[in-house]
Amino acid sequence: MRAWQVAELGEPAKVMRLVEVADPDPGPGQLVVKVLASPANFPDALMCRGLYQVKPDLPFTPGVELCGEVVATGGEVAGFRVGDRVLGGAVLPFGGFGELALMDVATTFPAPASLNDAQAASLYIGYQTGWFGLHRRSAIREGETLLVHAAAGGVGSAAIQLGKAAGARVIGVVGGPEKAAVARQLGADVVVDRHEADFVEVVKAETRGRGADVVYDPVGGETYARSTKCVAFEGRILVVGFAGGDIQSAALNHALVKNYSIVGLHWGLYNSYDPPAVRECHRVLTALADRCLIAPLVSKRLPLAEVAAGVQHLADGATVGRVVYDAGVPG
Predict the structure, then answer these.
(1) In a shared domain, residues 155 and 263
(2) Which residues span the domain enclosing 34?
(3) Fewer CB near the last or first residue (10 Å), C or N of the chain?
(4) In a domain, 41, yes or no
(5) Domains held by the chain: number
(6) Residues 43 and 70 in one domain
(7) What is the pLDDT of residues 134-178, one digit of tens each?
(8) Residue 118 belongs to a domain
(9) What secondary structure does DSSP assign to 149-202, as a single string?
(10) Which tens digits make up the pLDDT trace of 51-110?
């Protein structure tokens, strides 16, 4: 089969190579799927650079999540059969950026019929992260104000839709007019272009000085530091990631005197610590998708030949929504 491989570490566009590789062979509890679609995720770029906490042996094929059609099953497989349309996580080194991929039954789920392949491929990581973050970790309530950073990106766009579905008032922070338009399209009640306005002042004005009840922060660094200036009394700052590159130290005395919580989220751990909760989350997300309350925003569909360029655009912060390898796109 053809697949993108990383044989050395560096920028995705320089180290990803489209090559012929052997087809994956499923082990116990595993599935081989024909890849229908696989979105670019920030961990894909970080793994290419050797900067992610998961460091697969070289060479490997990136593409940490996907939608696919089951073509072969290993032993000890129950609940799936050849021909099923599924979504979930890939088992590296056989990631989603190839014609075939390998999946574990434990992290594989039926793909909702209400979503096309590119949307279904994008439902797993970003939306599960958002659901666990908003509902399990920060316990968002109807009527609360949710501040979402990087609101036009893959993770932020999911948080906007999930926040609105939960009945929250959503303030989205973006960089540039194109991304501002996307955040509005996704349903954000207020959109702040950080190049044009100070989100701290906007949040204070929009909440009459109270501040945001929940801050959804996949950026970190100075974004986190400034968010502490506009979080509400008994608010929750949800630490989702550090896409900005800097890991800010938390001033715990400030959290004490202002009575807010700093809440970490490593969604992937739930696959080990609470698998039933992950399955329940997928059930809820499928129901929301079927009711048209959520739908991953796919901004660009790429043929296999253009995947490396797409991952590089994501790494450079030049994308909105999801950039997805779609096997149905010719090229």
Answers:
(1) yes
(2) 2-123+296-326
(3) C
(4) yes
(5) 2
(6) yes
(7) 999 999 999 999 999 999 988 899 999 999 999 999 999 999 999
(8) yes
(9) SSTTSHHHHHHHHHHHHTT-EEEEEESSHHHHHHHHHHT-SEEEETTTS-HHHH
(10) 888 899 999 999 999 999 999 999 888 889 999 999 999 999 999 999 999 999 999 999
